[in-house]
Amino acid sequence: MAKTRILYISFYFPPLAAVASLRAVKMVKYLSKLDCELSVIAASPFLAKIKRDRSTLADIPTQVKVHRALFPDPAWCYKLLHGLKLSRLVLWLDKRLFFTGSHILWLPFAKRKIDKVMKGATKPQIAIVSIGPPAALKLALYLKEKYDLPYILDWRDEWLNNPEWINNPQIPKATNREHLLESKALRSASAAVYLTQMMKDNFIRRYPFLQDLPSQVISNGFDEEDFASLPEMRKHDSATLQVYYSGSFYDRRQPDALWQAVSELLEAGKIDQQSLHFCIRGHNKPAFVMGKYAHLAPMVSIKPHQAYKENLQASSQADVLLLYIPGGENTDSVLTAKVFEYMRLSKPVLAIVPTQGAAAQLLREAGIGYIASDAEVGKIKEQILLLLKEHQEGRLPQIQTNPAVLAQYSRENQAKQLHKLISEII
After folding, report:
1. Phi/psi at 403 (nearest 5 deg)?
2. What range does the domain containing 281 cover?
3. pLDDT per residue over 44-56, tens digit each?
4. Do residues 349 and 370 lie in contact, with contact meaning Cβ atoms separated by under 8 Å?
5. What secondary structure does DSSP assign to 202-260, as a single string?
6. Domain with 395 in it: what CATH number?
7. Angle in degrees, 0-180, between the axes of helices 358-366 and 338-345, rounded to the nearest 10
8. What integer pLDDT is reported at residue 308 of this predicted model?
9. What is the DSSP pairing of strand 215-217 with strand 65-69?
10. What would the pLDDT profile of 112-130 be if each residue is shown by its tens digit?
11. I need a surface site. Which of 95, 139, 293, 342 has the fewest CB within 10 A?
12. Do residue 234 and residue 195 come from a single domain?
């Protein structure tokens, strides 16, 4: 039986350290095990001002051809402009001059790699295009218009309805040109993949014609192989609850509601500084993370980003894992990748998230969520006190992810879902 030939386009791919890199490499890894022949076009790390994680390179199958296209990253210049207090100019450059963001500078080099792949002896039968960055929509249309190659748009994030964009008043509203590009790319697609059902519903409301487009909801997930060799949890000082967060706080994502809850519990004498310890690990500035709650610094360790697998090991040693998604328009649809790692680690999660959103719904189904929104400081306090009580009584280790829910989110099963969608098209 002949192999299915796939061109996988993802700006983010190892060794670039990003959640998007992880989704792409895991999908490529498991599609390769399903009799698929893959070529990948990704950004070269050479000029990219993006952190590296070389540990994930081992997931790239040896038979997969990776074509790395140069990205002359303007972030090197942006750093200087920010230093000169010209942040508004940076925003204008990124959202107006570059139109789809600075990743548009990657497109000429990516198109050359596409031409090289399409002129090869065995041409791909279909392309999977990971979105975002939204500039990749132009590559999808390039494939269709020049080579008549069918493509699937894999929506990791919404573009024009992205919560990080529409809830930030500093970011200019989408123009007609942007709406036309998104609509055109969707109309030309052979299928679409959405991260959540809420995301799919949002797209169909904006573009009713998508009701007739073949599609699949494929969330992020976990790779069982990454968890096989994690160490046993070490015993901590039983008086202190260890809470761990992996990720970055930025823009609207500032944990003031959490710190306010902790501060009020301290003032009321319901906890002391030895009751809780938070470890925050990622690309973070302590002054931003703590804000006006610097007096809580003895209870918080802010540590630098580390490689994916090392971070999993650190997460496995925590008593409780922290999830933080601020409220706002369309934030119900946000479902960050760390949710699935948390589920596989099978630990209780202090989830400060929209209470009717996708993340809250999944954590309830998994049976590990202690949930409150960032507008409910009183509820956050209740959940912290409940976690402390169960910790003191030794009951936290008994909290386990529902196995039936967990089984749905393995990367291997998700690759099978995508493979089935591909089979329906070609």
Report:
1. -60, -35
2. 225-406
3. 988 877 888 888 8
4. yes
5. HHHHH-GGGGGS-EEE----B-HHHHTTPPPPPPPPTTSEEEEEES--BTTB--HHHHH
6. 3.40.50.2000
7. 10
8. 86
9. unpaired
10. 999 999 998 789 999 999 9
11. 293
12. no
